[in-house]
Write a structure and sequence with these properties.
2 copies of one chain form a homodimer. Chain A has 199 residues and is mostly helical. Chain A has 11 helices and no strands. In chain A, helix 1 packs across helix 4. Chains A and B meet through helix 7, helix 10 and helix 11 of A and helix 7, helix 10 and helix 11 of B. The structure holds a DNA duplex (30 and 30 nucleotides).
Chain lengths: 199, 199
DNA sequence: CCCGTAAGAGACGGTGCGTCTCTAATCGGG
DNA sequence: CCCGATTAGAGACGCACCGTCTCTTACGGG
């Protein structure tokens, strides 16, 4: 009577069950028993694949959220290019809810690094394009400056998580624009603007 | 035979015991039973005062780490003033070890806000002093700009915690100087430097 | 067709939270 | 100085859930 699942199929079912449980209850109240029951399997099947509850959750998140950015946008303006990347990050950040993260910050931080490992290259390319266009005089800004908007967006994200606050799309848009217009672009123009003295 | 402690005395003993347990094992492996045993009392005495393990830990941290900055430094230079504040923060950050924080981020974030509630006022005063000295043309920088170094230092702190990395004093000093010299001061000079156009 | 692998189901021990219970020390009021 | 209210000190208890172990049985490769 009962048809047994195996391999890929079974694993996908489990990870989707785990993701559903996280969405419903958050990580803290995710139970291995609950996931097994929802996937209609036994705990041993889970423990055969992942060493503990945390790694199961991480696998479920990875399974649901793929890599972030793969290639650099090229809209013809530094502001728009960077804005595109930040919007992607902010959109993604809305999946990282407090319920998902609490109790799981270190693991998810590592995962986020893996997911967005292409970011530094993308930013470098955006800056090179801007330099080629003449928007800025050179693309080799200090690391800290080039990555500044990314760091600030991540900081805002962590801050909301830790305050148990949800991020609305409108808020995210405002924050992202603010970071670019009142911090990043003025700074970049001061360091490498076409009208500034060449260093 | 046994002499019983009460009130303040008992409470201080418990909080010191809790702090000691946190130092030894970290929050995650802090047990209420352990604290009670170390303080030579019963669990009920703890639960009579704090509703759960997390609040006990928060109380212990608050008991050990007092408020951060109370009044603005005034060294005669914007850079040195701000550097002084950042050094205080970085020094304090070295108490917020990964072991202490894991599993307790939201609670400690709230506590940190309480502990450093004087910061915004201090920063505002530092900027006013710089304006009075003529280092900058005006002190009403955008909120995000004025607080930028604080946010970046906090971000670095959270990042180390989440990566289970300790912060050495030398590293902290380097990061703090980098934030001021490659990000904050260039930006402030661009927005309100004496040689920039008055807006 | 047969055997090794792994699924499905659930029992089990262990840890540690938060509650409850009980005795007796201490404090404050009269 | 005594008496009653309070609460310290000690530990048992129920409960939730992790991670391990055991057992039977379906499946698939050779």
């Amino acid at each position: 009577m009962p048809t047994r699942r195996r391999g890929e199929e079974l694993e996908a079912t489990i990870l989707e069950a785990a993701w559903a449980e996280i969405q419903e209850h958050g990580y803290n109240r995710l139970t291995v028993e609950g996931v097994a029951a929802r996937a209609q399997t036994g705990k041993q099947v889970l423990y055969r694949r992942w060493p503990n509850r945390a790694q199961l959750a991480v696998a479920a998140i990875r399974h649901t959220l793929g890599p972030l950015v793969t290639e650099a946008p090229d809209t013809g303006s530094l502001r728009e290019d960077y804005l595109t990347v930040l919007r992607l990050m902010a959109g993604r950040a809305r999946h990282y809810t407090p319920e998902l993260l609490h109790g799981l910050m270190p693991e998810v931080w590592g995962l986020a690094g893996e997911i967005s490992s292409a970011l530094p290259g993308v930013i470098a390319e955006i800056l090179r394009n801007a330099a080629a266009r003449g928007e800025i005089t050179h693309a080799d800004l200090p690391e800290r400056v080039a990555m500044l908007p990314l760091d600030l967006v991540r900081y805002e994200g962590m801050r909301s998580v830790v305050r148990w606050a949800e991020i609305t799309e409108a808020d995210a848009e405002k924050v992202v624009a603010d970071i670019l217009d009142t911090v990043f672009l003025p700074l970049v123009m001061a360091l490498a603007g076409p009208s500034s003295r060449p260093e």
